[in-house]
Amino acid sequence: MIKRTLFLFSLILLSSCGSYNSIDTFYEAHKNDDQVTAVRVPRFMLSLLGNISPEMNSLIGNTKDLRYMQFPSATPERTKFLNNQMNTMTGSSFIEVYRKNDKQKRNIVSIREKRNAVKEILIYNNNTTRGSFLYFNGNFDPIKVREMAKNEDFQKIGNGLMKEFKMGSTSDFNQEDKKEN
What we know:
The protein contains 8 helices and 6 strands. By secondary structure, it is α+β, with helices and mostly antiparallel strands. The chain has one domain. The chain has a 6-stranded antiparallel beta sheet, with helices on both faces. β3 and β4 form a beta hairpin. The chain starts with a helix and ends with a helix.
């Protein structure tokens, strides 16, 4: 009886630790932080984003979940904290296909594979002033993903996504209201 209870307790503890290091947990933990831009694209809007770039168009057809987050990383302590969180999250469950370290600056592309398909893509960038991640969940061609990582196409997608969503932001609407008055 005691062994069974200890086993169940250990199982619950392990599963809670695993979920802490997920993209969902990171997103939920930081989306309300000061100076954070967080975008989670609903499935019905994914087809609209295919116009950002040819690379984005090739990914969109197979994407089930798309998220982007940009956050401040203005102090060395904050940069180290965010880098460590991403390292922990991707540590054993993702395969790094690209990494560039320059002191605390990071540019990382990690994937999760299942059989012959890439199921998740996580792109993390931190230039010690701002950090960001771009996350895709779906079914992707591993060869195409590696090619895009090598050519740094994912950075273009993140920039395009921000431009697309900034066009519809409230500040743009406020500027239109001022022009009309």
